[in-house]
């Protein structure tokens, strides 16, 4: 089934480009580690989902719509693709302007969005016409600027009805907490609030966290934006690439994945944890980790500090998997609505690894979530990212409220001083709209926060 | 690519323009005096349109010399206005004479006699329709016009008076195009006795009508030049052109700032900053639109490429174009624009240093906007520009207000103003009051406490 991607703004376009590059690299993986028959099925499924074949050019064309209010980024991407022999974008499916949306959600939502609607609709029509069976729409954007946030919200709202029967989800990049765009909290708040109503599931990506992964795990001395994107590319491709039906796991489509991970209208956020990420030099020497160690490590990533659930504890995603497991009495797990473990790589069937048991051994989920719905494990034998083993944990759990809480906290401070409000009212976004957004996101935060309480009652 | 039109008014404005154009050409690898060694710049020929226009649609790549420009009839996107034609006449004879379009020049003989009222009212009304016509002609040659860059001094009569009248016209006729003003404040040692009046009358208009103001004062510029002289980082490139002006070095510091300021709009970068983003990030309340600009490195050097250290301090007091210490006040917002060979890690490192050094407004502790542009300035591997919205600006306003009061208390020279048609004494009073209001707004913000209002409670 096909998926159409819409890339909004600088971030959306740069991340989208990295995602398609990762997918193309995966397709042309020279060492898939599976039979050529299995490989063919995998490749065919991937191509159908993300690309269309351009037989004239012998190239894959990304099933994507590129939207930006400033054409520099997309122009740069289109330029790059002439040197790329495997895949490219169709220049007809770009909707571009110039000048940008001024890091202002209101400008994006009220002015640039309506201006771009027609050309985006047209580009989307071209793209969807080519797909035999459309599964859904994936939007990619940052929340901090004006285009991804404002134009993205506007277009998603306008497209929602048209695609209400399809899966309609998005990947949202949250800004570095320490200063990047001065109005980022306002823009993020307004985006979260608008998208909440129309998206079936939102993958939250935090730039701070990605940056830490690069520094701690990959020992990057100097991090570029491209490095952040390569991790995002891996996480997204790792979650959405084809899965297998085996004796211990079932195959899931993208639609299945989103409905599993965001099963309830009050809990639509999820994040993707992944491991192992190792520096290139190390990869060569280390034989890789055992599956059961990897699986336990993924579970560790759900740990929280039981004495103070809100406080920052060790982030297990920032550590390499290890055999030494400190299991002391104080450990507690974050309460999850749903978890989905995806393992990719060789030799899983022959191990004694039973992730289901690990993840279900202690109640990780509120009592109203059915046991079988709370956790699933899916597998694919094909090697991913040239690694023998790679694991991804899609998780919708109580900890997701923390980045949102930071955003609301900061936005509220500015709002009570009416700072920057004239920039928004100028485009017709008034105080009431902010208040509505605060109410909505405060209630989402509350729901997530209260999950932890509900877990305790279950034990 | 975004386009800009410079509007140069009066002697000072046009002399800044005189330093601007050769350096702008140099960024595109076009030598105005001696041959340029680094020809790689022509890679970025898309950006050529930002400042230049040509009737035939050739890209910048084909231009190497002034002669090439002449044969392709390339013109600067520049409007030159002076009520005294000595400076403009010098351009008409100079090496760049073909670069300026005759139909975009507007001159007259008598000047404005260092009288704001004469520039603003007398010339402002008699030249209104011609100014609008000339600007419209320049605008019609643009496809993606994003900003006017206005340049003038506020101490004299023409730049100060007619320059601000032009600013008002721009806001009436082209409300959607950003208006950035670089204005030069007198050092206090010049012989213009009425300068304090001109300064206050002009500042009042700038507060109301400019998107952002990037002020410089001659005292700071002199100090910076003395410092550069000591370091032997002389500004050779500018000298060649503006050789007859004593202000050449000072003006090239301003030009250096302007080229860095617009670099994000003109060239690509992994964290692109468009001009439209500036006011969203930097102006939290109307009229608080004066930004203190600081640069590292301060000078040009066309002969040798000096390394730029990783740890930079463009926000330091002696790097400011205005004699204020922005970090002594409370910061309402900060923008850090880096161009050239700078990684995300370097940038984040500098952000956290600024965060430690500066005292930010309690309701936005991370009010920092960052940008990365991939094209380095001429002669340096990298450059950093900081724009700070600091309450220290209030101190500057009371300083210029004080100088105004000293004259106005004695009613010195006011008859020169009162005899001008259209000017009335209330303009003195209102302008002075507007500065006082601004100062007290800044004052109020330095004592602002954090929000006492609790966040919304959801039931
Ligand atoms: N991970 C990642 N973050 C990015 C990238 N580009 C920008 N960002 C983040 O996105 C935010 C800025 O938003 P942009 O996407 O640049 O803005 P935009 O949507 O183009 O909107 P305007 O430029 O305001 O019109 C900041 O938080 C950046 O850190 C990228 O390639 N990868
Ligand atoms: N930095 C700098 N300052 C200048 C320059 N030319 C003049 N000034 C300053 O500008 C002020 C005088 O204003 P001018 O620009 O000469 O006056 P004008 O706008 O032409 O107006 P009138 O001469 O009154 O018609 C004084 O404070 C000078 O120090 C220059 O090229 N660079
Ligand atoms: Mg952008
Ligand atoms: Mg003059």
TrEMBL record, chain A:
GO terms for biological process: cell projection organization; microtubule-based process. Its main location: other. InterPro entries: Delta_tubulin, Tub_FtsZ_C, Tubulin, Tubulin/FtsZ_GTPase_sf, Tubulin_C, Tubulin_CS, Tubulin_FtsZ_GTPase. Transmembrane segments: none annotated. GO terms for molecular function: GTP binding; structural constituent of cytoskeleton. It comes from the Eukaryota. GO terms for cellular component: centriole; cilium; microtubule; nucleus. Residues 51-247 form the Tubulin/FtsZ GTPase domain. Gene3D superfamilies: Helix hairpin bin, Tubulin/FtsZ, GTPase domain. Keywords: Cell projection, Cilium biogenesis/degradation, GTP-binding, Microtubule, Nucleotide-binding, Nucleus. It is found in: Cell projection, Cilium; Cytoplasm, Cytoskeleton, Microtubule organizing center, Centrosome, Centriole; Nucleus. Acts as a positive regulator of hedgehog signaling and regulates ciliary function. Belongs to the tubulin family. This is Tubulin delta chain.
From TrEMBL, chain B:
GO terms for molecular function: GTP binding. InterPro entries: Epsilon_tubulin, Tub_FtsZ_C, Tubulin, Tubulin/FtsZ_2-layer-sand-dom, Tubulin/FtsZ_GTPase_sf, Tubulin_C, Tubulin_CS, Tubulin_FtsZ_GTPase. It comes from the Eukaryota. The keyword Nucleotide-binding applies. The keyword GTP-binding applies. One of its GO terms (cellular component) is microtubule. Keywords: GTP-binding, Microtubule, Nucleotide-binding. GO terms for biological process: microtubule-based process. Belongs to the tubulin family. This is Tubulin epsilon chain-like isoform X1. The lineage of its organism: Eukaryota, Metazoa, Ecdysozoa, Arthropoda, Hexapoda.
